[in-house]
Amino acid sequence: MKKYNVAILGIRGAVGQCMYSIVKERKFPVNKLVLISPSGAGGELEGHRYVPLTKDVFNGIDIVLSSPGAEISKEWAPLAARAGAVVIDNTSQFRMDEDVPLVVPEVNPEDIQKHKGIIANPNCSTIQMLVALKPLHDFARIKRIVVSTYQAVSGAGAEAVAELEDQLQGKKTAKKFPHQIAHNLIPQIDVFCDNFYTKEEMKMVNETRKIFHDPAIQICPTCVRVPVKNGHSESVNIETEKKITRGRAIEILSRAPGVKVVDDVASSVYPLPILADGQDETFVGRIREDISIANGLNLWVVSDNLRKGAALNAVQIAEILIKNK
User: Is 213 noted as a catalytic residue in this protein?
Assistant: First the structure.
């Protein structure tokens, strides 16, 4: 088997650390592994020393798994691509660029072939929603999505996790979030746009249309930060062109790639973020027909936002990339 020179850009962050773990877990065919710290801060991971971000660091690199922040990606991802690497970028920088494919492997793997050196990873909340919705969309075409997300603090980085833990110990400081997050919910993720939706909410709208290649699909999102350490949850309501019964939805989702149906309400069994933590699947439950419209369906969708919502999705893209040569 051919092996590849791989770099992880942003190794000190939570996603970078998760990328490293998943590359090992999945036995990715690595010849040489370079761990890049954009800040230049030293360190090492299992014998791999962190190296600074320099102009020649990408020489000889085949694949870059990138999660250093949008501003760093903006400058350095094109440079890595010009050096001959394929960059799989987890930041928001390139997601809506026309020349950059935005990919969820279970949804639109064919778009990987269109890359010109950079492939974008979607937003975490978009990824898990579309893994669950793609097989239903293929069966009955979704016309409208109403989604409310309940997003863990790990999605805002290690400082946010520390802030939650501090507040649970009685400290009142709130730096990462506009309000206390412990024992609370904050109906704001990112800044507000002119239309009174947040940037996080508009990411779900625009990314869904791009990934589904369907500019007509209507999406109404509300994104909420919750005091959960890891694992995003979503309440998703869809309206389809033709009826999908609960039984048919379970049948379709049970054979969908990347999906695990967890739905036994008589025994109080349904997806929970605490059970999704550390898992690769997107879990779907509370599947029920919408009693307010003819062709509606409700789903409860949970996934580990650091794994499938970021690091795992990037590594899966790399696996398809090398499979297709």
Answer: no
pLDDT in tens, 20-59: 999 999 999 999 999 999 988 778 899 899 999 998 999 9
18, 115, 124, 137: the catalytic one is: 124
Active site annotation includes 232: yes
Identify the burial level of 275 via C-beta atoms within 10 angstroms of its C-beta, where 0-12 means exposed, 13-18 middle and 19 or more buried: middle
- Angle (deg, nearest 10), helices 312-323 and 14-25: 50
Global confidence as pTM: 0.95
Residue of 286, 280, 284, 285 lying closest to 304 (CA atoms): 280
Domains of the chain and any CATH numbers: 4-122+310-323 (3.40.50.720), 125-305 (3.30.360.10)
Per-residue pLDDT of 246-276, as tens digits, reads 999 999 999 999 999 999 999 999 999 999 9
Q: Looking at residue 42, what is its pLDDT?
A: 78
Annotated catalytic residue, options 115, 137, 223, 232: 232
Residue 105: name the closest of 320, 325, 302 by CA. Answer: 320
